[in-house]
Amino acid sequence: MDYELLIAIFPQVVLDGLLLGFMYALIALGYTMVYGVLEFINFAHSEIFIFGAFVGVEILLSLQSVGWLDRLPWALVLIVVLLAGMLASGLLAVTVERVAYRPLRAAPRLIPLISAIGVSFFLQDVIRLIESVWRNAFNLVYPTIDVMNHRFELTSTMDVSVRSLVVIMAALAMLWGLHALVNRTRIGTAIRAVAEDQAAASLMGINVNRIISLTFLIGGAMGGAAGVLFGIQYSLINPYTGFIPGLKAFTAAVLGGIGNIPGAMLGGLVLGLLEAFAASYMSLLTGGAFGAEYKDIFAFSVLILILIFRPKGLLGEVVRGRA
Amino acid sequence: MINAVAAVAAVALSVTLVAVFPRSILVFLAFQGSMLFVYAAPRIAGWLRWGLLGLSLVVLMPMIGSVNGYYLEVATQVGIFAALALGLNIVVGLAGLLDLGYVAFFAVGAYSWAIFGSPHANLIFGGGFPLAPGWFYVFLFVGLGVAALTGVLLGLPVLRLRGDYLAIVTLGFGEVIRVLANNLDKPVNLTNGPKGITPIGRPPLPFGIPYSEAFYFLVLLIVVVVIVVNRRLEDSHIGRAWEAIREDELAAQAMGVPLVRAKLLAFACGASFAGVMGVVFSAKQIFINPESFTFLESIGVLAMVILGGMGSIPGAVVGATVVTVLNLQVLKGFSLWLNELKNAGVTVLGYSLANLPTQLEPAKYERMVFGMILVVMMIFRPQGIFPARRRQRELAQAQVDKEQVAVAGAEP
Asked: Looking at the complex, does the CB of residue A289 fall below 8 Å from at least one CB of chain B?
């Protein structure tokens, strides 16, 4: 085995893992916040996430087609795209909740879950339909902004692009903002109260339905931001791209303890790092017998193992009747 | 009496129409509709009902197949999915365990015959393969056993989980099986990766029946067996235990239902049906690759069960028919029709259809159909088209409970 190579690529793997991890963390927040208030897995969140990426790419492509993409300051473009993606995804999440989940709130547990799976499938093809009609293509590529491809060489085996730095900083800002919102504002207090006990919160004068909508809005917005960042980082998107990252982000949420916001962040980072290590080292360690293509299996095995041995996750508290 | 005459007339008329217009999808749908009518029509003598259904399926369907072979293919596919839906119906409908990776068991069955029934096994064991075609019949049971075993192996670690977690884990499991099928062409070439395995052996047949008809009858036979087994299970000791678990796990456990054993049995039973059909599927297709066993297929089967009604046997069959026909015929037919209109240069409201984007392929929108079925059914008719009687009562009870809570809440 080539130990020198193992050590040499280590920092790059950590960096890749962190990037992936921040992405998972942002998506995982949507799952965990909704689970916190409704105890329900919002299966359609992966499509809400990829919807943000599509809104982002549409804006960038239209800017490009009128030739403004290179003329406007890139930071401004980035902020506009991020905000638009967040807004669109957030509104989509609220709509989905209103149409497909709210009528089922009193139904047996599996019923809203099945509805959510339906929404997920439906949205995938709706996005495909719209893009097919609009652009006659549904595999879209994020236009590149030249500045963001610039790479800093940190060591001889490790470099970092402006793009990656932007993704990490945006993710950090978003996570910090959410943390502040949930812990330091009245709205955040209301969200936590509804998660704790809906009936009691309602008796305290909190409009539970509005708070649930708000939770979907915030979770969806985080997903939309993740979508835009995902597009910027990995460029190629199609309507079905969101599914696997969504599933992994759910794994991350469970890993951190579902319903727990810092847990989702931690779980995302841990899963991202684990996956980056699995993808880079599996082939080296097994002499090429098993390669990076097993990284998905790896993530699911992690999920199964946590659920068996520590169903409440890394930071989760015990909740009655869970798992 | 009127109903009986109507039933006979419906079958006779639709068959005649199919004979006259062998290419019309609508007419074939009418034939299927007539069978549904015969099944559901009230106040018909039992012998007439079952006689007509038997006649339609055993005699008329192969005759239609001799006029238009594609319809027999559709009917065979319907049968395969009906068996899958019936298997999933045990897991989801009776035992209330949402399994999102069900197609994995189908894959296990399919690969078990595909590997040994084709020269592929030579790569693993050296020589002596493919097995003689007669082994196919043995492998029907091998596939059943292997799939059931897989079901138990999956079930053991995950059955302690609560419903929604179980759903996600089974989904992960389905993906794991697919990724394995995709990548196990090294270090040992078990599945030949994405290229798939071919040619897979077909069974020897008596009397020189053509394969298309033979597979139709084989699938029909298996579906009938599966229905009988399902029917017997439903009212058996274990069937009652499953429904008890579905209604209330804690109460069932308190009443002495061995939870883990009952759940494992549900997984194994459901998986075994899929395993058998997997073997038939691989022989029928001659070629299989991991693309046939995606998450989309699992959700398709789930949509069939939901559409028909969870826990309902006729529901699963009707659901399988509707969804398969929708996929294979209606969407495809719509695609063809749209293409014809495009090529003919038809304009609608001043918009020339020839300008329609080429990426717009109605046949590719099955996810939208599945998704709509799931959401609409959950919101408006969670008990399905043909609800199981017990399930219907349960949902009605939930409604009453809800209203009572609402009333109690309104009191000062």
From this structure: yes
The total number of residues written for chain B in this structure = 412
| Per-domain boundaries in chain B | 1-67, 70-311
Q: Is A39 left (phi over 0), alpha (psi -120 to 50) or beta?
A: left
- Beta-strand (E) ranges in A49-207? 140-141, 151-155, 158-161
CB interface of B with A, residues 202-261, below 8 Å: none
- Alpha-carbon distance of A282 to A272, in angstroms, equals 15
A158-195 pLDDT, tens per residue?
778 888 888 888 888 888 888 898 889 999 999 989 98
- Count CB atoms within 10 A of the CB of residue B72: 21
Q: How many CB atoms sit inside 10 A of residue B361's CB?
A: 16
CB A28 within 8 A of CB A250: yes
- Out of B169, B367, B376, closest to residue A124 by CB: B367
d(CA A102, CA A213): 10
ipTM of the complex: 0.85
Fill in the DSSP letter of residue A150: -
Give the residue carrying structure tokens 């918009």. Answer: B351
User: What three-state secondary structure class fits A195?
Assistant: helix
> What's this model's pTM, rounded to 2 decimal places?
0.86
* CB–CB contact A117 B302 (8 Å): yes
Report pLDDT digits (tens) over B317-342: 999 998 888 888 888 888 888 778 77
